[in-house]
Amino acid sequence: MNATFRGVFVHRYRDKLPEIRAVCIEELGMWLKTDPEDFLNDGCLKYLGWTLHDKQSPVRLQCVRALQGLYQEKEFIGRLELFTSRFKERILSMVLDKEPDVALQVVNLLLLIQQSSEGGLEEDECGHIYPLVFASHRGLACAAGNFLYHRMKCMFDDQKQESLKSDNAAFIQMIIAFYTQCEFHEHGAYLVDSLWDVAGSELRDWETMTAYLLVETGMLDEEEGALIELMVCAIQRASQATPPVGRSQGKKILSIKDKKIQEQDRGRITAHFIPLLPQLLTKHLDQLLSQICGIVEKHTAATVLEACAHLASSLCSERYTFSSRAHTTFSQLLDTLTDCFNSYLNELLQGSADEDDVYSAAIALKRIGALSCERSVRNEPVLQTLVHLPSDSLRSEMAAFLLDYVFTDSDDEDLSGDVDEETKITQLQRKRKQLAGYCKLVIYGVLDLSAATDVFKKYDKYFKDYGDIIRETISKTKLISPVLSAKTVCLSLQQLFSEMLTEERSKQDLCEIRDLAKRLAMSFGIDLHRARKPLVALHMDGIRFAFRASQGDEELPNAPFLEVLSMFSFKLLPKDRAQLISFLKSECPEPALCWSPVRLYQRSLEARTVSKPRDHERGDQSEAVTAQNSPVPKRKRTIANDSAMNSSSFHSSLPTPVLTSTVLKEPSKALISEESHEASSLTEPQSEEDFSSTSQMRVAKANKRRLPKIRKRAAEHSDLNSHLTLLSLIDDIEEEEPNIEDYESDSDHLFPHR
C-alpha cells in the first residue's frame, strides 16, 4: 500500500484529468478510514487540504465527502485537530462555493465539526453559515437551517436549567431574536422553509405563538411583528405544503402521507384560530388599521388597492364589535383623499394644472374609486361631493368635438398635405381613444343615453374605423335599459331624417339612412323574444314620428320615414306585427293609408304573418318552430345560388347527405314547390330599380338554360331528393344568422320603391 501510495497516488492526484483526481481523493478517503494507523496522519491529510483548492467542483466535492467520513468517527477527532486548525478558514469560505452542491456538503461538514470537536466553531465563524438559510437553493438553505437549529438547541439546552420555559417557547424566542437581528427582515417565508424539515413541530406550535401575542409578556413591537410574520409564514407553509416562490422546482406532487399531514394541519389551524382571531384583531386593530391606511396612501397598483378595499369592507362588517372603529378610520381616510382631490379640482377645470397636479389628482381619484367599490364605503356622504355632471353647454361642445375632430373623412385631411401611413395610424388611434372616452361617459351615466345618437348616426358611414367601438356601446346601452337603447337607435334615425328634410337632400340620402337602419337592426341579435319589447317600442316611436304634422301644415313630411322603419320589421314576432298594424291604422289618417310609404311599411308587417305563395314571403326565423311540416322558404338570392348547386358537377360528386335537421321534408311536395317556383320565376316581372334592362336579359337567358334542368329533375327523382334535402339544410343554416346582404335583397324585393 505504501508503494502504491507513493508510486501512484502522489503523482496522479495532480493529474490533468479531473476525473482521475476525483478518483484518487475518493480512494484516499477510504484508505484513511480503513487503515488509520498507516494513513491517518498529517502527511496524508495534507493532500485533502490541498485538494480543497482544486478548480474543478467534482474534485472539491469528493474531498469534502472524504472529510465527512473522517469527522463522523469520534476516535479520529484527536488526530484531526491540527488539520482542522490549519484548514478551517478554507472550509468556512467554501460555504459560498459557486456550486450549490459543494456548499451544501461543506455546511454538513461544518455541522459535524461543530458537534464532534470540543471547541467547535466560534460565534463569528457560525455567522458565515446563518445567512444561507435565506438562499434560493432549497437544499443549501435546509442544510443551513439544520445547522442553525442544532446551534439553537445547544444554546437552550444550556439555559434549560436556569429557566422553566418549555423547549418550544425557548426556541420561539430564539428564532424571534435571530429574525429581528439579521438583515433579511422581508424573507420570513424563506427562514420558515429552511427550518421546516428539522423544526416542524416547534413551528406548528401555534398555541405558544398566540399565547405570546395575547398575554402581556413584555415583548417589543418589533418582536411582536416578527412573531406575527413567522406565524403567518408557518401557517402558509403548513396549509399549502409547498416551498415559497423561488425555491420550488416545478409542480411537486404530494404523496399520500404528505396529503394526510396537510389535511391534519389545516384542521388544527382552523380549530385553533377561528375563536382567537377576533381577540387578536381587537388587540392589534389600531396597528392594522394604520398599516392599511399607509398602504393605500403609498401604493397605486390596482390589485393592491382592491385588496385593501376588500379588507376594509370586512373589518367594517357589523359582525365584529370593533366595526365602528374601523368605519371611523376609513371614513377619515376617504376625507383625506377627497380633500387631496378637491385641492386640484379648480386648476383642473380651469386648465391651469401642470403634469404633477394632474398626476396627483388622478392617483387620489384612483384610490377613492378603489375604496368606493365596496358597499361599506359606497354610501359615504363625502363621495357625493365628487359628483360633477357636465353642463348643457359642455355637452354641446363635446358633441361638436366629435363631429369636427373624430368623425372626419381621411380624404379631407390628406388634402392639407402629404401624410404618411404611420401618421394616419397615429391619428386614427387618437380619434378612437377620444370616441371611446365619449362612449364611456354615456355608459357610466355621466351623459344621458340620448347623447349616444351622435355616435349611432355614424355607425354605417364610419364602420371601418369605429365599428367595434360603436357596436360595443350599443350592447352596453342595452344592459342599462333595452327599451331606452332601442328608442335611442330610433331617435338617431329620426334626427338624420329631419336633417335630410331640412337641407333638402336627394333621395340617395334616404338610401343611406336605410343602410344605417339595416346595420342597426342587426344589433338586436337572433333572440327575438328577448328583443321583443325594445323592437315594439322602436316601431311605435317611429310610427308616431312619421305621422307627426309640422306646425301650420296639414301634410305629413315625415311619412317616408316608414321606409326606414321597415328595415326593422323582419325582427318582429307575429303577435307584435298584428299589434303594430292596429297601431299604424289608429295613428295614420285615413287618406294616408294609400300612400306608398304607408303601404310599403304595412306590407313589411304583413309579409311574415299572411301566408302567400311566393317563397320569399313565407315564414320568419321566429316561426321556424311552428313550420314543422313545410320546407324552409328561400330568398331570391338563394334561388340564384340554387342553379349553381344544381349543376352537373355538383350533382354527380356529392353523395346523399345524412339528415341532421329535426324537420323531415317530403320529397314530392318539395319537388312540386321547386318546379312551381322556378316556373313562376320565368314570368315574374322585375322592378326597374332592382335590375337594369341588361340584367333582365341575363335573367331571361339563365331561365331558358334552366328549363332542361327542370325537366331532367323529373327523371332523376332519387338524386333530386338528396339535393333538395341538402338545399334545405343549407337554407336552415342561412336562416339562423342572415348577413346584411341577405337583408338588402330581402327588403328590396319585399318593399318596392314608389
UniProtKB/TrEMBL annotation:
Please note every region of biased composition (Basic and acidic residues).
Answer: 612-621, 669-678
Q: What InterPro entries would the database entry show?
A: ARM-type_fold, Cohesin_Scc3/SA, HEAT_SCC3-SA, SCD
What residue intervals traverse the membrane?
none
GO CC field: chromatin; cohesin complex; nucleus
Under PROSITE patterns, the record lists: SCD
Q: Specify the protein name.
A: SCD domain-containing protein
Superkingdom, natural source: Eukaryota
The record's GO molecular-function terms, alphabetically, read: chromatin binding
Where the record annotates domain SCD, the positions are 9-94
Report the sequence similarity comment from the record: Belongs to the SCC3 family.
